[in-house]
Amino acid sequence: MSKPDTSSASAMSKKDCSSAAPLPSIIPPSEITFLKDLHPSRSEFTIKIRVLRAWNRMSFKNENEIYALEMLVVDEEGTRRQGTCLKTFLKKFGPLLQEGSTVIIKNPTLGDNLSSFKYVDCPHKICLYYDSKVIKCNDFLGSDNGFSFTPFSSILDKTFQNTQPIDVIGDVCVCYDTESFTGKNGKESVKRTMQLEDKEGNKIYVTLWDSYVHQFNHYISQNPGVTRVVLIIQFGKLSWFKDKPYVSNSYTVTKVFINHDFSEIQEFKTRGPYRTPEITKPLMMLLTRA
Predict the structure, then answer these.
(1) So what's the pLDDT on residue 279?
(2) String of DSSP letters for 84-130
(3) pLDDT in tens, 94-120
(4) pTM
(5) If 0-12 CB within 10 Å is exposed, 13-18 middle and 19+ buried, where does residue 4 land?
(6) CA-based Rg of the chain, rounded to a whole angstrom?
(7) What is the sign, positive or negative, of the torsion defined by CA atoms of 236, 6, 98, 70?
(8) Residue 113: HSE in the Cβ half-sphere, 13 Å Cα cutoff
(9) Model confidence pLDDT, tens digit, residues 247-268
């Protein structure tokens, strides 16, 4: 199975945006359908969304050829859904569907999501076709990041189903060495495991792979005196090993945020989570195997 290519459609000419047939600049709220209310039986509807993640899905027949642009989107209520735009329509819609963009989409359709691992808990995905219309939206009132954090307690008591993607936030309290190894396909890989602690003192494991390890290590090297790191894993994957929960990145779709200036991180720090003695030390002192 080919891994998704996270390069966006930014290389496409902006002049093609005009081909996305015009919509009124303001859509009455009564004409907007929230994502939770979508149903395959409806043939016409309009949605207002923010693109949280966008990546190219490559063809099974040719891993160097783009088959479609896949997206994870959120509406103003915070409901998340997966969407897709076939290569045929990327010239028309691609420039408007970059990560972080907010758009109004008229006349998309709902198709079956046949992926074995679904990035949202929904059997359908939003699809754009020749008669769909897309316009940039400047009055989106929903979340900037679309986080949906799962409490650690729900992970530890196995209430959370690990067939779903997961968002978690916590303090890095233990950090193990970076490990390098060669996979069965001969590819060199690296991974790094750490523990996150929530405000109640619950702990889970997180394993980062490849580019996410480099992202974390770069942050640490650039901030050697940091005493506290709050980590967010968005669209991660939960698995269990020896009866312990591990959240890891899922291919390259997962997003990792390290001490970002987000309201969610500032709020987490302000709430004063439970702190173990280890976490009060500079993080560089924790970068050895516990």
Answers:
(1) 43
(2) EEEGGGHHHHGGG--TT-EEEEES-EEEE---SS-SSS-SEEEEE-T
(3) 999 999 999 999 999 999 988 777 888
(4) 0.82
(5) middle
(6) 20
(7) negative
(8) 21
(9) 999 877 999 999 999 999 999 9
Residue listed under structure tokens 């359709």: 109
Give the separation between CA 273 and CA 170, rounded to whole angstroms. Answer: 9
Q: Cβ atoms within 10 A of the Cβ of 271, count?
A: 8
Burial class (CB in 10 A: 0-12, 13-18, 19+), 149: middle
Instruction: List strands edge to edge, sheet with 109-112.
Output: 109-112, 124-128, 80-86, 66-74, 46-58, 102-106, 133-136
Helix, strand, coil share of the chain (percent; to 5) = 20, 35, 45
Q: Which residues pair with 179 in a beta bridge?
A: 191
Structure tokens belonging to residue 143? 């979340």
Per the DSSP assignment, residues forming a β-bridge with 62 are none
Provide CB contacts within 8 A for 29, sequence distance 6+. Answer: none
CA distances from 285 to 171, 209, 212, 223 (A): 15, 22, 21, 13
Task: Find the mean pLDDT for residues 40-55.
Answer: 93
> Would you say 47 and 32 are in contact if contact means Cβ atoms under 8 Å apart?
yes
What is the Cα–Cα distance from 100 to 144, expressed in whole angstroms? 8
